[in-house]
């Protein structure tokens, strides 16, 4: 296991503490178990999709929550061995609870979530506020004069 010390970054950079925290968090979570597997893809200039393999889960056993730029997907499996007469010789399907967290950039919002064929697809989009979008500034021809007055003339 390799660990990284971000202390020099904290000492020499102002305002990047959130970035360093994200790097530390990513280093910690990359060493956790890899279940359930997932994909992250870009589907457009400001659009993304997260697909999580959740075979065997029903929509009411899954929860998606966004709080302060943190997307959390949780699966809570209802018990399947409730005396329904099933006798397993081998049980290889992972029907265990899980929690998957994704750090979202500023202004990234969840648009939709669908569960199809065991894949939970979460569509996200970056929605920049109008104040942050680039805008074209018109260039004027100078200051306008008051009508009828062109300046003071020596009398």
UniProtKB/TrEMBL annotation:
Keywords: Stress response
InterPro entries: A-crystallin/Hsp20_dom (IPR002068), ACD_IbpA/B (IPR037913), HSP20-like_chaperone (IPR008978)
Domain SHSP residues, every copy: 29-142
Keyword Ligase carried by entry: no
Keyword set includes Cell cycle: no
Pfam families cross-referenced by the UniProt entry: HSP20
Stated family: Belongs to the small heat shock protein (HSP20) family.
Protein name from the UniProt record: Molecular chaperone IbpA
């Amino acid at each position: 296991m390799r660990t990284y010390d971000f202390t020099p970054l904290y000492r020499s950079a102002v305002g990047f503490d959130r970035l360093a925290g994200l790097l530390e968090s990513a280093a910690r979570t990359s060493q956790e178990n890899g279940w359930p597997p997932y994909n992250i893809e870009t589907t457009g200039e400001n659009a993304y999709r997260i697909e999580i393999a959740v075979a065997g889960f029903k929509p009411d056993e899954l929860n998606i929550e966004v709080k302060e730029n943190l997307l959390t997907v949780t699966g809570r499996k209802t018990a399947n061995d409730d005396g329904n007469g099933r006798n397993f010789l081998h049980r290889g399907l992972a029907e265990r609870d899980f929690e998957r967290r994704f750090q979202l950039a500023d202004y990234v919002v969840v648009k939709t979530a669908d569960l199809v064929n065991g894949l939970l697809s979460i569509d996200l989009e970056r929605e920049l506020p109008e104040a942050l979008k680039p805008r074209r500034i018109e260039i004027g021809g100078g200051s306008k004069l008051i009508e009828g007055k062109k300046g003071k003339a020596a009398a």
